[in-house]
Amino acid sequence: MSDRTKASRAYADLVRRIQTMRPHEMLPREVDLADELGISRTTLRQVLTTLTAGGSIYSVRGTGTFVSEAKIDKGGALSGFSEDMRARGMTPGSRLLHAGPELADGPVAEHLGLRAGAVVYRIERLRLANEIPMCIEEVRLPAEYFVDLLTHDVSAGLYDLLKSVYSVEVAVARQTITSSVATAAEAELLGIAAGEPVMNVQRTSQDARGRSIEWARSRYRGDRYEFTLTATRNGLV
Amino acid sequence: MSDRTKASRAYADLVRRIQTMRPHEMLPREVDLADELGISRTTLRQVLTTLTAGGSIYSVRGTGTFVSEAKIDKGGALSGFSEDMRARGMTPGSRLLHAGPELADGPVAEHLGLRAGAVVYRIERLRLANEIPMCIEEVRLPAEYFVDLLTHDVSAGLYDLLKSVYSVEVAVARQTITSSVATAAEAELLGIAAGEPVMNVQRTSQDARGRSIEWARSRYRGDRYEFTLTATRNGLV
DNA sequence: AAGTGGTCTAGACCACCCT
DNA sequence: GGGTGGTCTAGACCACTTT
Q1: Is A180 in Cβ contact with B209 (below 8 Å)?
Q2: Whole-angstrom Cα distance, residue A146 to residue A178?
Q3: How long is the CA B11 to C1' C9 vector, in angstroms?
Q4: CA atoms of B126 and B122, how far apart (whole Å)
Q5: How far apart are the first and last CA of chain A?
Q6: What is the rounded distance in angstroms from the CA atom of residue B101 to the CA atom of residue B84?
Q7: Tell me, what DSSP letter sits at residue A26?
Q8: In terms of DSSP bridges, do strands B132-142 and A172-181 run parallel, antiparallel, or are they unpaired?
Q9: Cβ of B163: how many Cβ atoms within 10 Å?
Q10: For tag attachment on chain B, is the N or C end more exposed, with fewer CB atoms within 10 Å?
């Protein structure tokens, strides 16, 4: 959404323009469109590529570029709990269950790419949506990247904190989702009955340099949460 | 993987080159690299953008371009069951439970963007991995796009069929995952006990033109299946 | 000041679809 | 043959980091 470059400004212009058009309506030819937007065709094509990847438009070789039909709205799979809940129109909340340093044992060290015995921070929170318990979240972060992390407020909006204080942003995340039934302890925290379904989400995050910066395990109550994701076919490869 | 364009050939070359390098090792400067690969810097940058999006490399402004550290291998969220299972090293199988035309009722018509009462094909299959039941899959496809679909063998590899016979490919898919416990009927088909956890995956797929081409509901057994996905931060926006 | 990636351009040529 | 998107180029200039 940054309007620092011509391309991103043209992108915003074009998105607005597409919204006023009907599905399968044809866009002006690229040379003309570039002219209207005040950019070169090369820059325009960069913008069009992004829009195509996002499913807003499609082009047919030798024929033209068209507005796509239904818009599958993309859920931000890279967002954290707070952002995710706000996108769903709910108010996120948090109750801190634990926050402290510990030594990484085998599995944790492996997931984070650290040597066994390295220091990690473990933060465990009960996450709420509109005051209702939604999931139990357990996050581990390498202490070497986030010095004095616990002197800050980690009860909510952890990603904002990592970005603003440590200038670290998630670039790639891998999530594994499994289904199970709640144990007695989990059930009590989540306010459900033992034996009810829960979704387990394990997540490993890396920054742009490819360093693992987070390993998280969440247990969502299955009766109230649904996990949404959008996949797009890649270009070039 | 197509080597028809200079860019895709350079991409393949560069991937091979990166594999011989160590994490955080610096690549040659762009002008030189473009020269070595026999392409212009503009074309090279297109390739580098793809590699960056894929998490293979990262670049630091004013400094250089580097090989990323750990490689999170991307699971193809756009693949079908057969492809998915083969990627996990298992042999996919299928038992056809039902295949026939029907009239789209409200919810189905809505998901597929059809008028109520349009004809859709419903295909229900029990999907196996190494002969073991893995999920129950119910797919609905608009008959207007896939004329005489049922004269073909739909028991396995449906996506391959859609591509080879109808030249239709999935470009964007949206999936919603929820957790529940198996009903008696589901449990029997899946070979588990009623009350055990299952994962429900609902999926809407669109082709490049934005037409909804598939609506599917799957129920995976929670004890044997895990859902993996990789998310990457987008450029431009 | 020198070196690097980031943005943008004008224009050439190719591949394909239509009438 | 005329129109459209797809690929590729050489080069300019900017922004940032390092010495």
Answers
A1: no
A2: 29
A3: 25
A4: 14
A5: 27
A6: 27
A7: B
A8: unpaired
A9: 13
A10: N
List the pLDDT tens digit at each of the 237 positions of chain A: 456 889 999 999 999 999 899 888 899 999 999 999 999 999 999 999 888 877 788 888 888 998 887 655 555 566 778 888 887 889 999 999 999 999 998 888 888 888 888 999 999 999 999 999 999 999 999 998 888 888 888 877 788 888 778 878 787 787 888 998 999 999 999 999 998 999 999 988 888 777 888 999 999 998 888 887 777 665 444
Residue B222 · residue A162 · CB < 8 Å: no
In single-letter form, the type of residue at position A9 comes to R
Query: pTM score, two decimals?
Result: 0.79
Q: Is B226 within 8 Å of A1 when comparing Cβ atoms? A: no
Q: Is B194 on the interface with A (CB under 8 A)?
A: no
Residue of A nearest to B219 (CA): A179
- CA dihedral defined by A144, A148, A154, A158, rounded to 10 degrees? -40
Q: Is B6 buried (19+), middle (13-18) or exposed (0-12) by CB count in 10 A?
A: middle
Contact B201, A61 (CB under 8 A): no
Which uninterrupted H or E stretch holds B232? strand B227-232
**CA–CA separation, B142 vs B14, rounded Å?**
42
The beta-strand segments (E) located in B81-196 are: 92-103, 119-129, 132-142, 172-181
User: Which residues make up the interface with nucleic strand D when CB must lie under 7 A?
Assistant: A 27, 29-31, 41-42, 45, 48, 59-65; B 5-7, 38-43, 60-63
DSSP letter at A196 equals S
Task: Retrieve residue A126's tokens.
Answer: 């009960």
Neighbour count for residue A76 (Cβ, 10 Å): 15
